[in-house]
Amino acid sequence: MIPQTHLKVVRKLYERLKDSSVNWVVTGSLGFALQGVPIEPHDIDIQSDKEGDYEIERLFSESVVEPVRFKEGLKS
User: Fold this and answer.
1) pTM, two decimal places
2) Which domains occur in the chain, in start order?
3) Fewer CB within 10 Å, N side or C side of the chain?
4) Residue 11, phi-psi category: left (phi > 0), alpha (psi -120 to 50), beta (remainder)
């Protein structure tokens, strides 16, 4: 079952991002639950590209706890 608080956040994300050029997607356990997988999500994971990350930060500036920053991952 998806908590109502999670659904409210996804609606808020959608409302602010629907008219933007941001490419974003809900991933993780909530993404699975939204597709009907019987899993209880405990957080909300979203993915975007670099430009989208900064635009999301700008659009939700009143809620930013930690600024967007990039860290290079390990190369194989």
Assistant:
1) 0.79
2) 4-60 (3.30.460.40)
3) C
4) alpha
